[in-house]
Each structure stands twice: as C-alpha cells, then as structure tokens.
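Entry 12.
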Amino acid sequence: MLSVSNLSVQFGKRVLFDEVNVAFTQGNCYGVIGANGAGKSTFLKILSGQQDPTSGHVHLEPTKRMSIFEQNHNAYDESTVLETVIMGNKPLFKLKSEIDALYADYSDENADKIGELQVQFEEMDGWNADSSAAAMLSNLGIPAEMHFTTMAEMDSKLKVRVLLAQALFGNPDVLIMDEPTNDLDYETIQWLENFLAHYENTVIVVSHDRHFLDAVCTHISDIDFGKMNHYSGNYTFWYESSQLAARQRAQQNKKSEEKAKELQEFIARFSANVAKSKQATSRKKMLSKLKIEDIKPSSRRYPAIIFEREREAGDQILNVESLSATSVDGDLLFKNVNINLAKGDKVAIISRDSRATSAFYEIINNNRKADAGDFKWGVTTNQSYLPADNSDFFTQNISLVDWLRQWAKTEEEREEVYIRGFLGKMLFSGEEALKKCTVLSGGEKVRCMLSRMMMLRANVLMLDEPTNHLDLESITAFNNSLKNFKGTVLFTTHDHEYAQTVADRIIEITPKGNIDRYLTFDDYMSDKTIKDQRQKMYVDSVK
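Predicted 3D structure (tokens):
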C-alpha cells in the first residue's frame, strides 16, 4: 500500500533518519511513537509529501488515495463547512468544480463534456457527497445549521472537528493523522476510536493519548536511533513487553529458556485480553505468531517523578461555596459550584469548556477573582499548582539550576548538587542543567515545573492539562507517580488513561452548577442518568 525506501533526513550535522525502510499495509493502524525530537511529525510530513527527505523516497500504490488531517486551522476560512469536508476527497472535489464551472458557462459545445464528467462523478459516488459529508459532521457534533457557515466564522475547537471530518471523508486508502485527539472532547474521541477501530484501510497516527493508541492500533512504529521498527500490538503491549525485555536483559544469570517461557506467557496473557473490537481477532493472531526475538528492550529514558509530602494534611482540605465565573468575553463559564474535598481524594475536574476548568484553578490559587462565591483551604494544607499556561514562570534568562533554586527552603536545598539531583530526575543531566530557561521547549518547561512541584513537597497537587507537551515516557511516569501519591489531587486532562487510572472522584463544572460523583472516569462517562443530567446543565451543548 505505502512504502518507504532508504529514507534519510539530515539537518546540518544532525541525522534524524538514517536509511529507513518500512511498509504500511492495508487494514492496519500504525501508531508512530518516539521521544520528543525523534522526528514523528517530520516523518508524517514526508509521507504526505509536505516535506522532502534528504534521500530516499516514498511510494504509494497507483490509484490509491491518501488523506491528511490538516494542521492549519485557517486554511479553508473562505469555504463553507460542508464544502471544506468534501475537499478532503481532492479528485472528487476537482471533478465537482469542473462540472460546476461548465454549468456556469453552459453551451451546446460543453454539454457532452458535462455528460462525460457526470458519469465519472457518479462512479465516485459524487451525488451522495453532500449527504455523506453532512452525516460525518453530525457524528462529530457539528449541527446541520452550521454546515453552510464559512470556516472563518467557526469557533476554533469546532474547526478541528470539521478538519477531522475532511480527513475521514470519502474512505481514503491511507489516512495520516498527527495528534487527532487534540482539542476534542471525550465523546468525540470515543466516536473517533470506534470509527478507526472499524476502518478497513491503512491508518498512520501520531498521538500522545495512550488510551487512543490502545483502542485503534494494530502496530506500534517506534522511532529510535534514526530507525523505525514496526511491532505487533498496541501501545500498552509495546510498553510492557519492552520493559519486560529490558528487565530480562539485566538478569544475566537467568537461563535463556526461562526468559523465553516468561515472554511466551506474557504474550499469551496479553493476547487473551485484547480489547473487543473489529481489530481484536487479527491483532490476537498477530500476537500469537510473534517470535520472542521480535520483542526488544526500549532505549527510552523515563523521568523519576516522585511526589513526597512535607506533612500530612488534616481532614479539612478545600471548601468551595457558590463559586461563579465568566470569561473576558462575558460568557458564563460556571455558576453555583459547591465542593467539599476530603483528604486523599483524587479528583478529575472536567467541563465541556476548557476555559471553565482553567478559571476554576486560577480562582482557587488566588490568581483571579470569582464573580461570586468563596473558597477556603484547610489550615494544614499546602498546595502546588501546574497551570496550563506556564509561560510566566520562564521570563528570566537564568540557568535551570538558578531557576529551580527559587523554590528552595533550606540552605541544603540551595546547594547546586541538591538542585542538580532534582533536575537529573527530570532528565536534565550534565550540561542540560545549565541551559537558559528562556530557550526551553514546551515539554522541557513542564518537566521543570514538575521538578519545582517535587521540591515544594505539597500535600495537595493541582494540575491543569499536565500532559500537554510531554512525550509518552514522561506521561507514563507522571501517571504512575500520581497513582502512588498519598495526598490530594485535583486535575484536568484530555488523556483518557490518565483520568481513568488516577481519579476516584469526578466533578464536572457547568453553567448551571456542578455534578459530583465518587466514580471512575469510565463509569461516570457511561452512566445514562449522568449523561442526561449533563445535557441539561449546559447552556449550549455544542460548546
């Protein structure tokens, strides 16, 4: 279907890819993973022809059509929503445009040409294009009254859904998607997971959402040391098997037959527990045929994220009474929110409007004032906050060592050796610890903020979209640390796995109050009574 031959990419002296040879076959979904900077997005751009490699080439079978999830949200501002979706099938849209142009300048001379084009149009199912595009939009939460709105008039988060519909439209032979779940709500992500799990053509996707990768992928395509290797199974299987292989490599005294048996038992156990989906049967067959030598230890480095508490909090954690807030544009974000936190609660704070959750955190951290209501922290609590926008923390042109020293509490903590220890845990080792904080990437800034949080030793952690900018290794380590943390956690995330494995309580804040349940995330989202209640509590269900 799609193959890459002798692909190399080099920027100056830096080699990103070195003689990569891989093939992507029909019916499979490939999750492309790799550390930050490994070249995941660059690889997708090369596959789609948006960027040229230094050497080598990409070959797509003749007559096969490739579709790409558009990253430029303003690329179709002059077009209507429905027209934008149909543009996803370029050959069909081109044919439609030719027919429309000929009709606009109709004459006896071009009547025959119109007839010929209409035959081709019918063979491409063109007469059903409008209805198919409308159905796709409706499935993604874009109501019919918006289908003839121009893209320029659409809210940015709704634009993402339209561009997603564009990529999926017309059943492309190869579908390429870079972070498709960004800016999507949980219900839309769930719909997309189900769509792709039943998709019978080739999908190549980059995502930091582990639940999404587990739900849709038949293979993991790992970029490491400038090469790419395909591994059968989803992300969890790749992660657990690579960790097992790494442990076995360290067990020098263990007999090879014992290692082989352990790996075989692992494969059999995982194969038996494959998720029930359209792909489950073929995926199970692939795993059962997997050879022991196909499983390789990963060279990835995982940060050591360990949250400790300076002291244990008492029973009074946080009391919120009748809290309300509006946006700078005057939109009602939430109203009459009432919360009483218990010690040890791990709470997912959710809303259909991300501005609402961010405003809530800013208010309870005294960074902005509420329109109404009040809140009070327990006297034995000390809080640490990771905001969604951390740019205000990185305005000084100082080294990471000096940056982290700002939150030291004792003379010992101010020592460079001590601070380097914290930074080393977050993979800033050696000269990396002397980098200026004004030149950090998004992921590096978050890792610095986590170092700061560890140093503060708070008994209450607040996290607003903490996985933004992090690679899968950091997300996995961060996720595990919160599961083990003994204090109280309030967090907001679009990472399904994060929400499901950390939260034991869900609080949803809406323009008409809040819903508060001691449930896992999956149970909360699947409860029909709660679904009906949620629908009634939002002023605008499309927001």
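Annotation: The chain has a mean pLDDT of 90. DSSP finds 20 helices and 18 strands in the chain.
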